[in-house]
Amino acid sequence: MSHIAVTDQPDESKHPHSFITKYVWSQDHKVIAIQYGITAIFVGLIALALSALMRLQLGFPDTFSFIDPAAYLQFVTMHGMIMVIYLLTALLLGGFGNYLIPLMIGARDMVFPYLNMLSYWTYLLSVVVLLASFFVVGGPTGAGWTLYPPQAILPGTPGADAGIVLMLLSLAIFIVAFTMGGLNYVTTILQARTRGMTLMRMPLTIWGIFIATILGLLAFPALLVSAIMMLLDKVAGTSFFMPALLSLGEQLDYSGGSPILFQHLFWFFGHPEVYIVALPAFGMVSDVLATHARKNIFGYRMMVWAIVAIGGLSFVVWAHHMYVSGMNPYFGFFFATTTLIIAVPTALKVYNWVLTLWRGNIHLTTPMLFAIGFIFTFVHGGLTGLFLGNVVVDLPLSDTYFVVAHFHMVMGVSPIMVLFAAIYHWFPKVTGRFLHEGWGKFHFWATFLGTYAVYLPMHYLGFLGVPRRYFAISGSDFIPESAQSLNAGITVSAIIVGVVQLVFIANLIWSLRNGKPAGSNPWQATTLEWQTEHTRPGHGNWGKTVPVVYRWAYDYSVPGVKADFIPQNVPNEQLEFTDEQLYRESQQ
Amino acid sequence: MSVISRLREKPWLAHAAGMDPALQATPERWPQRTALLFMLAISTVLFFLFTITFLGRTQLPDFQALAGEPWQPLTNPALLWLNTLWLLLSSAAMQLALWQSRRLRQKVSPWLALATLLLLLFLAGQWQLWQQLLAQGYALRTNPANSYFYLFTAVHGLHLLAGVLALAKVWWQRRTPVQFSRSLQLCTTYWHFLFVVWLLLFALLTSSADTYNTLAALCGF
């Protein structure tokens, strides 16, 4: 029980003093969060560069001699895998989860700080193993991020020797890291909340992270199982997934395995993964919207229930990724139904965000712009999801750019919008300084309009039947010449959006020293992380005593109260009422 | 308070001074127990998914069950029964150690040593079985049934070894008898869990092809 000391009382002797224990082998959740964040953003930039290379080939084929078909497939694969797992999952849960959970629920740290530290270093190891695959013979795997066997491990696919082995190892290590971190997040939320912080007083950010972590803990084992079994197929010659087949004119030793089995396993992880990314984003955007609209979140209970419902439903929709896999057609009927049902709680959340804005006192700060931008991109991606959820619509559109446009809008651009909103929103707490507003607004508009310039035309390309994952599409009769001009335009937009992200990185670095000082609660927010004794909260977060919670997280613009927000740790006795309210009370 | 009533709370309602129900009671905290419950859930999912893929795989034509016919190696799994006995005794020794520690007696460590020894005996027995199978020509790659047998027993064995490590840490870091006993309770739960998992795996891996067909039909394969 030695770990609980840090959640109960500050122990001066426990504070780390040397540089190494403070910033490198740190057990402080805030430092670990920043380590996670920096690592994730670093690999994210690599994945962004890979997407630029892909776009160069698609926009201007036959121009760049260093991009051959094999390299193109490797770029596609690594871009997808890095973005989904090593950037989004790690940044949302490892980064924001770590930073915000203890601060928002009024704890001094995670309940298992040592495990938390181990989680980060294991994650870093998985990143190193992943990046090592760029430097082995044959390069990284080019099997597509779904890694479908048999092609993923057979000659002919780039990286079918060392690349795929390193990829599977890296995934297994990542899952171990995530499980250690995830156990910490759920246990901390369930066991270390401060006095008065009931489950329904938690900010929606915490609800989103909580349910997403549970999804991750229960869904990542499916990826682990498939990674172990495919690794055995590759290295030990078993036939879990590998059917009997001829390769390069020779009969291979494999026999009888089922590639569809892999697909089921993969998507049993893969679909909850969408919500592992989306739910923390839903939560954080709710808090940003409420704070910057100075209004309580509309339908708080409904929002919580919707998060829980989406989490539950996300485990019974996976096979909508497999309509074209040749599975039993009755499955398609079942999974189309569940897929359309999950749209109900999701739509509820969208209505509630819009109703939160309605008649709010909207401050168009940079985080707010990104949060509102998210509503647009998410509705957009969600609606195309309703198209693709239906079997008959999916069959012709599957494997076209329509799908690329759909999932980039819904789980690429939308969570990234929230991540930006969150970084602009919480940066003042992390560093004590604002990010530059002017650069921030430029960053928002260029990113928002730019991503539309990239992905809107892709829907049209999909309708034309342009297939995804292809290195070059020239010489196809059914694709008009103009599709190539559209592709060139998309590439130009994509590269502009990519370059604008460097402005954001520059803003981060510049503002660390030169940003406007923010004070402890610059957005006048109610949640606990803004009520810490010091900004840049110290080790142990809360000074002498942990805060006590007297109210929910959304007391903005409460009628009759002077200030337009009441922090969660302010009791009713300390409220200052308006003269009008005092008069009214005296009349009663 | 049940989960449902917690989720039905209306957090926006104000409470009069001193009447806030959330501030009345401080629930007891035991984070290690919560973490263990989640770990057991994760392990359950892991074994469940392996089992489901196993049942799916049994329905493909090249699958040859390891038991059911007289010439198959696990039809009379005497060694597996012996191993099961070791694991059962190991679980029992853990339970006795826990009871001893609850009565704050000093005789805890011998029981823990015995539990660990029996567990290692189980693992040695499993290793011996692997060697027997290999000697009879049932290699990892020759048939998916063999692949699954090695996979299941390896994953289960790794879980057991992790349990030994956790127990060693608990023993090493014991401070007060009460704290020791609480930690032991978690270890014992983990031991029993892995024993139950083993019984299920045992039943699954030594079933005949007919049983697999029935189970797979129930699962819709």
UniProtKB/TrEMBL annotation, chain A:
Its main location: membrane. The chain crosses the membrane at residues 36-58, 78-101, 121-143, 163-186, 206-232, 274-290, 302-324, 330-348, 369-389, 401-424, 444-466, 486-510. GO terms for molecular function: cytochrome-c oxidase activity; heme binding. One of its GO terms (cellular component) is membrane. Coiled coil: none annotated. GO terms for biological process: aerobic respiration; electron transport coupled proton transport; respiratory electron transport chain. It comes from the Bacteria. Pfam families: COX1. It is found in: Membrane. InterPro entries: Cyt_c_oxase-like_su1_dom, Cyt_c_oxase-like_su1_sf, Cyt_C_Oxase_1, Cyt_c_Oxase_su1_BS. Keywords: Electron transport, Heme, Iron, Membrane, Metal-binding, Respiratory chain, Transmembrane, Transmembrane helix, Transport. It is a multi-pass membrane protein. Residues 19-550 form the Cytochrome oxidase subunit I profile domain. Belongs to the heme-copper respiratory oxidase family. PANTHER family: CYTOCHROME C OXIDASE SUBUNIT 1. This is Cbb3-type cytochrome c oxidase subunit I. The lineage of its organism: Bacteria, Pseudomonadati, Pseudomonadota, Gammaproteobacteria, Chromatiales.
Automatic annotation (TrEMBL), chain B:
Its main location: membrane. The chain crosses the membrane at residues 36-58, 78-99, 111-129, 149-172, 184-205. It comes from the Bacteria. It holds the Pfam family COX3. GO terms for cellular component: plasma membrane. It is found in: Cell membrane; Membrane. Keywords: Membrane, Transmembrane, Transmembrane helix. InterPro entries: Cyt_c/ubiquinol_Oxase_su3, Cyt_c_oxidase-like_su3, Cyt_c_oxidase_su3-like_sf, Cyt_c_oxidase_su3_a-hlx. GO terms for biological process: aerobic electron transport chain. It is a multi-pass membrane protein. GO terms for molecular function: cytochrome-c oxidase activity. Residues 33-210 form the Heme-copper oxidase subunit III family profile domain. Belongs to the cytochrome c oxidase subunit 3 family. This is Cytochrome c oxidase subunit 3. The lineage of its organism: Bacteria, Pseudomonadati, Pseudomonadota, Gammaproteobacteria, Chromatiales.
